Amino acid sequence: MELDLMKAKEFYHKMLLIRRFEERCVELYSNQKIRGFLHLYIGEEAIAVALMDALTKEDAVLATYREHGYALARGVSCESIMAEMFGKVEGCSRGRGGSMHLFDASARFYGGSAIVAGALPLAVGMALADKMQKRNRVTVCVFGDGAVAEGEFHESLNLAALWKLPVLFVCENNLYAMGTALKYTESETEIYKKAASYKISSKQIDGMSVIEVAKAAKRAVEDIKDGNGPVFLECLTYRFRAHSMFDAELYREKAEVIEWKKKDPLLVFENRLKEIGLWSEVDATAIEDAIKTAIDKAVEFAENGTLEALEDLEKFVYSEVSHG
Amino acid sequence: MELDLMKAKEFYHKMLLIRRFEERCVELYSNQKIRGFLHLYIGEEAIAVALMDALTKEDAVLATYREHGYALARGVSCESIMAEMFGKVEGCSRGRGGSMHLFDASARFYGGSAIVAGALPLAVGMALADKMQKRNRVTVCVFGDGAVAEGEFHESLNLAALWKLPVLFVCENNLYAMGTALKYTESETEIYKKAASYKISSKQIDGMSVIEVAKAAKRAVEDIKDGNGPVFLECLTYRFRAHSMFDAELYREKAEVIEWKKKDPLLVFENRLKEIGLWSEVDATAIEDAIKTAIDKAVEFAENGTLEALEDLEKFVYSEVSHG
Amino acid sequence: MDNTTTYREAVREAIRKAMTENESVFLMGEDVGHYGGCYAVSMGLLDEFGAQRIIDTPLSESSFTGAGIGAALNGMRPIVEIMTVNFSLLALDQIMNNAATLLHMSGGQLNVPLVIRMATGGGKQLAAQHSHSLEGWFAHIPGLKVLTPATVQDAYDMVGLALADPDPVLIFENALLYNSKGSIDTQGTPVPIGKALIHKAGKDISIFTYGISLFKALEAAEALAKDGIDVEVIDLRSLRPLDDETVMNSVKKTHKVIIVDEGWKSGSISAEIMARINEQAFYELDAPMARVCTVEVPLPYAKHLEDAALPQPQKIVDTARTMMGK
Amino acid sequence: MDNTTTYREAVREAIRKAMTENESVFLMGEDVGHYGGCYAVSMGLLDEFGAQRIIDTPLSESSFTGAGIGAALNGMRPIVEIMTVNFSLLALDQIMNNAATLLHMSGGQLNVPLVIRMATGGGKQLAAQHSHSLEGWFAHIPGLKVLTPATVQDAYDMVGLALADPDPVLIFENALLYNSKGSIDTQGTPVPIGKALIHKAGKDISIFTYGISLFKALEAAEALAKDGIDVEVIDLRSLRPLDDETVMNSVKKTHKVIIVDEGWKSGSISAEIMARINEQAFYELDAPMARVCTVEVPLPYAKHLEDAALPQPQKIVDTARTMMGK
Ligand SMILES: Cc1ncc(C[n+]2csc(CCOP(=O)(O)OP(=O)(O)O)c2C)c(N)n1
Ligand SMILES: Cc1ncc(C[n+]2csc(CCOP(=O)(O)OP(=O)(O)O)c2C)c(N)n1
Ligand SMILES: [Mg+2]
Ligand SMILES: [Mg+2]
What we know:
The complex is a heterotetramer, with two copies of chain A and two copies of chain C. Chain A is about 40% helix and about 10% strand. Chain A is α/β, with parallel strands linked by helices. Chain A has a single domain (about 5-300), classed as Rossmann fold. In chain A, the strands form two sheets. Chain A has a five-stranded parallel beta sheet with strand order 1-2-3-7-6, sandwiched between helices. In chain A, strands 4-5 form a two-stranded antiparallel ribbon. In chain A, a hairpin with a 2-residue loop joins strand 4 and strand 5 (about 180). The longest helix of chain A has 26 residues, at about 5-30. The relative contact order of chain A is 0.16. In chain C, about 70% of the residues are buried. In chain C, helix 1 runs parallel beside helix 8. By secondary structure, chain C is of the alpha/beta class. The longest helix of chain C is centred in the N-terminal third of the chain and has 15 residues, at about 5-20. Chains in contact: A-B, A-C, A-D, B-C, B-D, C-D. Chains C and D meet through helix 5 and helix 11 of C and helix 5 and helix 11 of D. The complex binds thiamine diphosphate (TPP) (2 copies) and magnesium ion (2 copies). One magnesium ion (MG) binds near residues 144, 145, 146, 176 and 177 of chain A.
């Protein structure tokens, strides 16, 4: 994969946007502007940014409750995401979803799912629909290492492989499902091998390197669009923060966190750009500034947003034209 | 494994008992003495007989709705099984279970389960209890090829492997789940390979040969009792009859059935015994007669059984001492 | 009206019609293809429409139901057949947390035009794991619609109604009805979702019921007529939404209520109907309402026990007589 | 009584006591060990009892629940923690088709002494997939018992009661209660399963409720007292079995009924209670019974919408006033 300056800037910008956006979310959480569960993606930004880069507008994305990064990288606006977390009508889910349920049909961003592994079957079905309708599209489905133990992981991988469906499965293996380390949950901890046992083309990659993920994602999407059936990518990564805002992190050593922070995807990328001589042309300060402005704007937008009228509580339980 | 005459007679007797018992069941079904679903084991007898032979009384067995053969081979009495299918109090489940739900706690025969793959988690839990209580026992769990697609298959294999539990998983791969051929349901049709992907010691064997199954079962049980964790056996087999009494068998070719009937486990075993010169000492006629007598007796016993009093319908929803 | 169409054929015919008229409709489930359907509903459709549209699935209830949701989100009109309600428990997470929820949770962006059909009910001596009647229980879930066709006409109509609906619709087909016969009008306008039907008008007692119990109630009504008790028998047709209007109008006429319900008594749809009548027509009631439900046991195999557990015409007759003081 | 014990500590203490007294008791579930429990209930227990008895499971709700059943069948007394009720849907097949069924289906041979605990309820802005209150819905299933501890004492007692029971018992702990405080009597005889408790006697209206709604009802009762409306507040404690006797006795006293229920209105336990009162105490009623339930929507994230969806003291007050014509 060619890494030109434009792409380099874009990657850096997007990863930093996610980082800063979530840092602001933490503040806003402390100020009780954001409530409910808030799962941070900090440390894992490379994956979302690189994956979304491999897609066209027609492709579809399904993510987990740790999906801010995906929504942002997919191009869902900062404003509508922030407004969502403020519970406002201007939010991308009209304030009904919150942090765990960002949706944007126009971006083909299908959430935001809070049941671990619950989106895999949906991804299979979306890909089935594309195949039946002979549309050359990919459905990307992201999930954590914890999802691998669920029955739906197995059922969905089998269906996708059996029916040769255009799905890109992406496992973000950050070594923990909440506080339970992978070694306590899987007899086979090399997750990509499990996918291979369904005869799915499967690979383990460095999820801290936006370049490596971008390469693998590009190839995977090409493969899928060539009609070769599903692909599975296991991205090795780490979440730098607690699982959610209520986590004392008793289950992992500080030293481990420190070790992984050395692989911070922003740092790794910066160093790489330095190596290849592109860093000097990336105006990091300008990017910081632009991001700050964008986030400030988003917060203001969210603050100024409106609350859904109480009369509309029951709206959208059924479609308006429906008989319900 | 040493095949002495006694064992040879016993195997032959048990396989034939299952065959004749089920043939009688078919008649009784036509006469409406037996109702509900009736799934025949005919063609697959070698597996149950050989597996049960490898167990001690302390080991536990969990089977499917196609479990007459297991109940008989485990030593649950013909009478109580027949009475069960007649819906009588003298039945091994007091007439509440029928063909699909034979239970005999004294034989550590835990059913009789009609939800495909539903018994696998139970087997895991039973084995977990044995391990916790430091009892050197095996729990055998039998299921069909259809069960492999269920999420619980995956979850249970993972748990058993992860916790190194004393479970013997046995898949009776008879190529069809009802009317759906394995190739339509699994991306990997070599089922034992799926088990291997959980790091479970796993093997594919000829399920039509009582000797081969007996050998494999014996070794597996030893392995498990040596503390090496679960073992998985895929037994290649074939059901000679329809899935249940309501099956037009549109999904398979007559020729295929005929081909497999050449591998009839009774026939295969008879030929083998002839080869090693034991057959002449097996008094097949006497065995036939003894079986006929036993089945006649069972039918009579079932006919003469009593119907549960209607007042007792709600008995056993909760335990008697319970507050329910 | 030649009354020779079976309920099974009616469902099949409705599926065939929908698949012929709309390329986006497809059928998926266990054994719907090569086997011809567990209850032979889809017999012949594989040959007619091919394996791309009549899809045999592995035993993976959760995932093929979820795949139905995904396909519905992505432009298709899937009919997912869950072989029987007994296996739908494995798919409940997908049904409640995704199908029923996505439209609201996405702020109105993502509707799920999914039809899920399943066989339901006891009475075939299939014992505790294969005899559930959970349609009333599913009706608890907002975001879903729950249909219970009793007649051959409804067996036909409801497939079309469900497919025309933009939201997830569950159709519960009582397995004992598949062989029942009737005639179908394929040209008329079907009675919409959410509308109950008076099958027999009467003035003394209202019997509200659905599915196979409709016929038990009608049988009871005949017997009661001989005693001079004139019951009104109403087929609810849809358990969610419930047709409160038709229910309350009947109560205003008869002032007495019996509900016949195939579900376990506690917490089933019969309780909900009682609750609504209490709320909306309390002063119309002349006597306590009564219900004839399934006894609260895992259904036993033995026929006499199973019969005793399920609602039966005689129990309805006895309940009505007691209510009329006869 | 120093009122400093939290509900969370009460549950933990009860588990600790049971594990100390009985080697067969163990705890298994997601994050119960190294993390200390999603709601910190089991914090410290891993250190105390070791990984053999405080077992972190993979995310495999169906199978570890089923494994609990198997372990219970084989001599153990497992406590399975399903992190929250929202994930219990994945385990429903095991709960309904195995745990609730095995004793009856085996003709009385196999009882399942399994305790399943789970957090339940909305009110924390966790949105549609994480805010279910399904305890009333689970109470539909024969073979199960369903407990809903509201007080710190019950949080403590019910673990022991459930473990002493030979059959499967589900305990629903409302997550908003974990920080609530009270005192516990560890020496007394616990109020048995199936017994409701009068928390506040009154003569004008009976309010039946459970779990967190108990406190909403008590709050409403205070406000109503100022209006001269004297309500009786009854904590059902157990949704299956229900304490019909205590319910009917209260109805006989007040002749008016409100039910407060965290479940979605249609088909929830409130309907069942209304149905039973209709059946058993119809002539005692002076007015239609009323219920304050959760509005039938997938629970929304935004706080004002979520508040509007859930039962609130003010709604109870309004309902009571209307009922009293004030
Ligand atoms: C079915 C289900 N069970 C349990 C939970 C509670 N839960 C939320 S996140 C989580 C851990 C998931 O870990 P993983 O899949 O590795 O994703 P990560 O959070 O590490 O990104 C758990 C147990 C859930 N949401 N869904
Ligand atoms: C969860 C579940 N889904 C569907 C069924 C209906 N059903 C009963 S047996 C069967 C086929 C099972 O095939 P397999 O596991 O290969 O066992 P076999 O009958 O061949 O012995 C099916 C689909 C069921 N009992 N349980
Ligand atoms: Mg993880
Ligand atoms: Mg098979």
